[in-house]
Amino acid sequence: MSIDGLKSLNNLSSNFIYPGQVLKVGQSSNQSNTVSKPSASQSTNNSSQSGSYTVKAGDSLWKIATEHGLTIAQLKSLNNLTSNTIYVNQKLTVTMKKSVNDVIPTTKAPTQGYTVKAGDSLWQIASAHGTTVNRLKALNKLNSDLIYVGQHLRLN
């Protein structure tokens, strides 16, 4: 849905919205999809031992994926998401299922690396290689997001 369409559907005259505001985002055959703030009785601990996460106001796929050591692509795949849209109170799976391919190999895999090019960012590199910024920083003992052209980064 376009911004103009969203504004029109909600009779908004500006681009400003506020936390807790309820917005119409479309109409299905039986119900309208709205985004609203969580109730006061809702638990503030959104992660559970079962590997699920309940979306709260202000969340994004990037934030949730990063907090759970996943890439956005992995999070979307786990939850069969076809877009980047998530909703308050939506339950998301945040743990990867173990498979036969997850068995630790008996020989150590060769270390993969990447040489930073002009215009690169940790986020771009992490996304392109199926990892997270936090994982890249840990592997390379980086204390900040600062990288430089020609720098060699470990990817695994």
How would you briefly describe this protein structure?
This protein has 156 residues and is of the alpha+beta class.
Plain-language structure description:
The chain is an alpha+beta fold and 156 residues long. It is 22% helix and 13% strand. It contains five helices and six strands; from the N terminus they run H-E-E-E-H-H-E-E-H-H-E. The chain has helices at 3-9, 61-67, 72-78, 122-128, 133-139, and strands at 23-27, 32-35, 52-54, 91-93, 113-115, 152-154. The strands form three sheets. Strands 1-2 form a two-stranded antiparallel ribbon. Strands 3-4 form a two-stranded antiparallel sheet. Strands 5-6 form a two-stranded antiparallel ribbon. Strand 1 and strand 2 (32-35) form a beta hairpin. Helix 2 (61-67) packs across helix 3. It is globular, with a radius of gyration of 20 Å. The two termini are 38 Å apart. The relative contact order is 0.12. Residues 28-49 have low confidence and may be disordered.
Number of strands: 6
Radius of gyration: 20 Å
Distance between the termini: 38 Å
Question: What is the string of helix and strand elements?
Answer: HEEEHHEEHHE
Q: What is the share of helical residues? A: 10-25%
- The secondary structure category is alpha+beta
Q: Biggest β-sheet: count, sense, barrel?
A: 2 strands, antiparallel
**Uncertain parts:** 28-49
Kindly estimate the percentage of residues that lie in beta strands according to DSSP. 5-15%
Our count of helices gives 5
For the residues shown, what is the average pLDDT? 75
